[in-house]
Amino acid sequence: MRQSMERSRLTRDLRPRAFTLTELLVVVGLIAVLISLLLPALANARSAAQATQCLSNLRQMGAAWSMYVAENKGRMLEYNWQLPGAAEVAWRAYWPGMLDTYKVRGAALLCPSAWEPISFNQNKGFGNVNYAWTGKYQSNGTPIRFSASLYRDGSYGYNHWLTVGSGGFGWDGKSTHVPYRGLSELPVFMDSVAPDFQPANGSQLFPVGSPPDLRGSSPMVASQDHWRFLIARHGRGVNVALADGSARRVPLEEVYMLRFTDGWMKYRLSLPVR
After folding, report:
1. What is the mean pLDDT of each run of 10 residues along the chain (274 residues)?
2. Distance of alpha carbon 219 from alpha carbon 226, whole angstroms
3. Cα dihedral 67, 70, 72, 74 in deg (nearest 10)
4. Of 131, 157, 163, nearest to 229 (Cα)?
5. How high is the pLDDT of residue 2?
6. DSSP code at position 70
7. DSSP code for 17
8. Which element (helix H / strand E) includes 47?
9. I want to staple 160 with a disulfide (CB 3.0 to 4.6 A). Which of 146, 149, 198, 233 is the partner?
10. pTM score, whole prediction
């Protein structure tokens, strides 16, 4: 009898013991804490990877621009936008057509932080901090739309001052060639909600107007051009391809410390919190 009782107790001791409700709740809580600790790290790693790819895209674009300038003996791009009677000419024109000639196209024009084109018609296809601009809502015969079925999307814009006769360079403001000094401070391409921009300068005493926010949520077509790139796409900054072939992240407050055109007065911007 005693042996039977001992065997029964031993059998009970060998059975797997189920978790109690309290123990299960403790385990679930620990998992939740670990996830909450890991998620910010994963998000930061993802953002860093996206920013690195974005800089790689801009270097490709900058390299193509440099090759174009070298092959054309320093001559800047022509500004050809609306050619409704010659859609093919328009498609191959301006900076999108130039980059396409050097095989920089498609995904190379899209920042991973703004990969998808905007899905609705905001100011003829303007994007925002999270979405690329699109030629889908433009008219036919532009550099970003050939036809209803063939158009370009992008996350970057071009410094319109770097076009022939734009009034940006040269003693008479009608220079046809790229300036040869200060190239490490001269932006060519950068994160933008529109295909190009021609920002006004202002001064430290009379600065340019600040955008309503840093999300590019309402970049009106007639709004100030610098609002197009004052977007918090990479933290509180944007990536920029410079005329010397380099690319780097620039904090938004310091964007006007670059030199967009001749006679540019540098100063720090005062911007919204978000």
Report:
1. 56 60 75 70 71 97 97 94 90 97 97 95 92 96 96 98 91 84 96 97 95 82 86 97 97 98 96 92
2. 10
3. 130
4. 157
5. 55
6. H
7. P
8. helix 21-71
9. 198
10. 0.85
Tell me if 271 sits within 8 A of 207, measured CB to CB.
no
Q: Minimal CA–CA distance to 242: which of 193, 188, 200?
A: 188
Domain boundary assignment for the chain: 45-257
Question: Using CA atoms, how far apart are residues 230 and 227, in angstroms rounded to an integer?
Answer: 5
Alpha-carbon distance of 254 to 69, in angstroms, equals: 27
10 Å CB burial of residue 245 (0-12, 13-18, 19+) is middle
Q: Which residue has the tokens 């039977």?
A: 4
DSSP H or E stretch at residue 147 = strand 145-147
* Tokens of residue 215, six digits: 């999300």
Q: Which residues, in sequence order, are CB contacts of 17 under 8 Å at separation 6+? A: none
Other CB atoms within 10 Å distance of the CB of residue 236? 14
- Cβ-based neighbour number of residue 254 at 10 Å: 13
Q: Decide the pairing of beta strands 133-134 and 196-197.
A: unpaired
In total, the chain counts a number of residues equal to 274
Please say whether the beta carbons of 238 and 250 come within 8 A. yes
